[in-house]
Amino acid sequence: MKTIGKRCAAFLLAAVMLATTVFCTEVPVSAASIRNEKISVKIDASSTVALKISWKPSSMAQGYAIYRRESVKKPFQRIKIVGREVTSYLDRNLPSGKSYQYAVRAYRKENGKNVYSGYTTAIASTRPLAPASIRAKAVSEKRVNVSWNPVSRADGYRVYKKVAGKSWTLVADVKKDRKSLADMKVSPSTKYIYSIRSYRLSGGVKYTSNLVQSQETETGAGDSGDSGNHSKYNSAQKDVMKKILYAVETGGQVYGRQDYTDFTEAYTNSGAEHAITIGAGQWYANEARRLLLLIHETMSAKEYAKYDPKNYVWNDVKNIKDWSSYRLPEESGRARIMVKLISSPTGIKCQDQLMYQQIGEMEAIIREKYHVTEVRSVGMFINILHQGGEGSVARVLKKTKRPVTLDNIYHALQSDTGNQVGAYKSRQKFVYEALKTYMR
Length: 440
Fold this sequence. Notes:
Layout: H1 2-31, E1 38-39, E2 41-46, E3 51-55, E4 63-69, E5 77-83, E6 88-91, E7 99-110, E8 113-116, E9 118-119, E10 121-125, E11 134-138, E12 144-148, E13 156-163, E14 169-175, E15 180-183, E16 191-202, E17 205-208, E18 212-213, E19 217-218, H2 235-249, E20 263-264, E21 277-278, E22 283-284, H3 286-298, H4 301-307, H5 312-319, H6 333-343, H7 345-368, H8 375-388, H9 390-399, H10 406-413, H11 425-438
Parallel strand pairs: 1-9
Antiparallel strand pairs: 2-3, 3-6, 4-5, 4-7, 7-8, 7-10, 11-12, 12-15, 13-14, 13-16, 16-17, 16-18, 16-19, 20-21, 21-22
Helix pairs in contact: 2-7, 2-8, 2-11, 3-7, 6-7, 7-8, 8-9, 8-11, 10-11
């Protein structure tokens, strides 16, 4: 009996030791559960139709589950299960310019059930399509107009330029609602090529399209206006004409003086002026809109947002096509924004640019339609056209003795009475004397 008792005790002790051994070997497995792992995913590559992700392997994983969602407001959807040897995945057949968020979880069986790791996410976008084309046209020696076709789901565009044989330089990043810009950082008599990429912003990264290139365009030689080959004035003559027009419009008839900040309400200058007038050149109604369009085209999106952050003025410029009766009180918020825009460094530059352009346009009308060619005579008729329109030009020209000279035009203006341009005697005298003094 004692022998049997000893054998039973030994058997029980062995059983207890075996149970203890089994328990001790399972403790590390539980402590090393895959739940304590965290799989980090990163974006390796992007195209217009696919995204490639990758992750570091886990020694505990029996496989990986891959998830994707289009927005943080939507739940993740599992899109693929892969084996333990796989550490990357190419997500194909996606739409262009679309953002996605990815996550990867390792898994393994523990106690008969699949257990999943934690995860971190990565955000990326497929690349947007490239614009169908980009067009560049030099309109003066100081300006090239660039335009392109908009792209669906693009957040903006990167515009570049280069001189033949040199490297590309960035002109501007512009927002998605833009499809043109004016490059005024160009040199005379220079050939430029422009290119563009659309981009999609995702996770702080700009995913860009392929590059599309324009045809070569060449700036003019020594012409400050935008009137193409019609202008005979050189840059110095145009500058004289600009100072004269500024002086009579907002400069108190003082040569070289102007008010770039001017905002004039409707009906202030005349009962016939049904819209606002802005700037040193007194741009009225649709010409005011033209100036604001030019400023928007010229400024970068970041610069424009400093003056019109909620796009109050830009929405009016973009959506109201006819400004013939566009009115604002001078103290209104929109009016104050306009004044800030037109008096900014870019706004002042655009006012000068638009004035040069309009001088070129008016000069072409005087030379080609009315066949006036002498530089001072052309200048006086530019003044008349700017003030009273083509009807005034035709009327005064008809009264002018031949040959058409500055003196003969000024003499004809003395008989242009009533509510005609000649009735503004101090203005016409100032222009006459300024042309004689400064126009060469």
